[in-house]
Amino acid sequence: MNFPKSLSEKLKLREETHALRKLPIDTNGIDFSSNDYLGFAKSASIFNQTHTFLIENNLKINGATGSRLISGNHSLYTITEDFIAQFHESEAALLFNSGYDANIGFFSAVPQRNDIVLYDELCHASIRDGIQMGTAKSYKFQHNDYEDLEEKLKKYSAFQTAAFSIYVVTESVFSMDGDSPNFEVILNLCQQYEAYLVVDEAHALGVFGEKGEGLLQFQNGQDKVFARIMTFGKGLGCHGAVILGSSELKSYLINFARSFIYTTGLSPHAVATILMAYKELKHSHQIQLLKENVTYFNQQKQLFGLKPLFIYSKSAIHSAIIPGNEKVKDVALHIQNKGFEVKPILSPTVPEGQERLRICIHSYNTQEQISQLLTVLTEALLN
Question: Cβ atoms within 10 A of the Cβ of 201, count?
Answer without folding.
Answer: 27
